[in-house]
Every structure is written in structure tokens, then in C-alpha cells.
Amino acid sequence: MKQNWKSKFNIMRVMLIYDLPSVTNEDKRYYSDFRKNIIKLGYTQIQESIYVRVIQSKTLSNAHVEKLRKFVPPRGNIRIFIFTEMQYESGIILSGNISENELINDDERYKLIDGN
Q1: For a FRET experiment, which of 4, 6, 11, 115 has its CA 20 to 30 Å from that of 83?
Q2: Measuring CA to CA, which residue among 73, 76, 70 is closest to residue 30?
């Protein structure tokens, strides 16, 4: 279903980028629990340690960030970016090969390095 231009400004994408240690067994448990929890919240992996989720409005995205606070491990670094659907769709992906993840998520935005 095609979205109209207004919905592309109202629908939001929440992007998580994280760097969590996995040196000790405790670190690995925190990493595993964090990943399981964000997947339960509806996040999809688009690259290693980068996950996105669609949220219906800016107000709901703010509430969703509060849910994420419950899962933050004591060590590591998590960044959250919130984009409109229009901003997210304007992203350009440069890659030597198309990954299965990108085929599922949106292959129309793909730009191959070799021009194919």
C-alpha cells in the first residue's frame, strides 16, 4: 500500500546503534538479553549492532524510548535516532552486494558501488 506524503512525515523510524562489551560471561549475558528484548519490542536488524523499528508517531516514539531504558546494560554504548519515514527513505545505501536483510527491508533504495 502506498503511503501519502503526510503519513511519511508522521510515521517514525527508531534506530538503535549499540556497542556492548562481550568479554566476560556477564557481558555476554547482558548482550544477549538486550538483543532478545529489542527483538521482542519489534526491532529488525539492518546491520550488525544496528536495529530499526517503525513507530506510528513522534509521541509514541518518545514513550518507546522509555521502554528501552529498562534494557540498557550497565556497560556499553547505545545511541537512539528517531527519523520520519521520509527521512529514513532518503538514506542511501552503498554496498558491494545486496544483503538478504536489505532485500527484505527495501531494495528500491539500493545503490551498488560498481553501479549495477
Answers
A1: 115
A2: 73
